[in-house]
């Protein structure tokens, strides 16, 4: 299998199918990054005839609790932990939440007078991924490389980058033949819907020195032949030059 075994199109398709399946009656999934911000929109809720809608009142709720509430000719009111941490756009109905925390996760819904009822949206707050940790072992002539991603493994995916062939591959582990070039590196890429991270590992660190020497003999053994050809070529050129001088 080639090193870039997941193409960009396949990755994109899997994200859209796995996370934004509009055909089901489940809440739409929206993803925010810890300590960052996210905007929830009525457009996410599949509400009909929303394009030219004029709001006279807006209420956003998380579960049964109010997040933001506005009535025409009045100021917007924010509730609980969202006070000074949320902004409501009175024209679009968009709700933006800042400095996201894990407790912000949950089901959100907008309510407005005469507004058709739409689906709820479920907000997930995920970590900004740190670099994955790589470890390896050598057994029976094969190198096994393992990748440890984030502790928060929800929606966590793995991808491997290597200029060679895999003997075996799983989500967070690959196995390589002993015949690979030990001077190569292999990289593990972890990603979730809000971030991505990558760590490399040099294969030479995975193989005992005795096995590295045996592998090197195969490469070194070809050097004398190359040298002989090079010297022979120089001699022929030199001899031809002497003939021409005569």
Order of helices and strands: HEEEEEEEEEEEEEEEEHH
The CATH fourth-level homologous superfamily of the largest domain:
Immunoglobulins
Fraction in helix: 10-25%
Span between termini: 60 Å
Number of helices: 3
Overall, the morphology is elongated
CATH class (first level) name of the largest domain: Mainly Beta
Would you mind describing this structure in some detail?
This protein is of the alpha+beta class and 246 residues long. The protein has two domains: 23-126, Immunoglobulin-like (Sandwich); 133-212, Sandwich (Immunoglobulin-like). It is built from three helices and 16 strands. The chain has helices at residues 8-19, 209-220, 223-245, and strands at residues 28-33, 38-40, 57-62, 65-71, 77-78, 86-88, 95-97, 106-111, 121-126, 133-139, 142-148, 157-161, 168-169, 173-177, 185-192, 195-202. The strands form four sheets. A six-stranded mixed beta sheet has the order 1-9-8-3-4-5, with no helix packed on it. A four-stranded antiparallel beta sheet has the order 10-11-14-13, with no helix packed on it. It is elongated and about 80 Å long. It starts with 7 loop residues before the first helix and ends with a helix.
């Amino acid at each position: 299998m080639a090193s870039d075994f997941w193409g960009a199109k396949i990755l994109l398709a899997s994200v859209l199918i796995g996370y934004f399946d509009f055909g089901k009656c489940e809440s739409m999934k929206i993803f925010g990054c810890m300590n960052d911000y996210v905007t929830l929109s009525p457009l996410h809720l599949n509400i009909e005839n929303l394009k030219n809608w004029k709001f006279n009142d807006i209420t956003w709720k998380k579960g049964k609790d109010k997040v933001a509430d506005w009535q025409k000719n009045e100021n917007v009111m924010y509730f609980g932990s969202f006070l000074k941490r949320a902004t409501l756009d009175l024209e679009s109905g968009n709700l933006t939440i800042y400095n996201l925390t894990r407790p912000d996760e949950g089901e959100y819904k907008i309510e407005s007078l005469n507004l058709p009822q739409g689906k709820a949206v479920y907000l997930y707050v995920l970590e900004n991924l740190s670099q994955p940790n790589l470890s390896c072992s050598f057994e029976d002539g094969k190198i096994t490389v393992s990748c440890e991603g984030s502790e928060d493994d929800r929606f966590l995916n793995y991808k491997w980058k290597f200029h060679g062939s895999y003997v075996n591959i799983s989500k967070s582990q690959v196995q390589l033949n002993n015949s690979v070039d030990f001077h190569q590196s292999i990289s593990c890429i972890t990603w979730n819907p809000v971030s991505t991270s990558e760590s490399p590992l040099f294969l030479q660190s995975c193989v005992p020195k005795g096995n590295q020497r045996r592998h090197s003999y195969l490469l070194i053994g070809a050097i004398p032949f190359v040298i002989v050809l090079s010297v022979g070529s120089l001699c022929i050129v030199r001899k031809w030059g002497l003939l021409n001088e005569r």
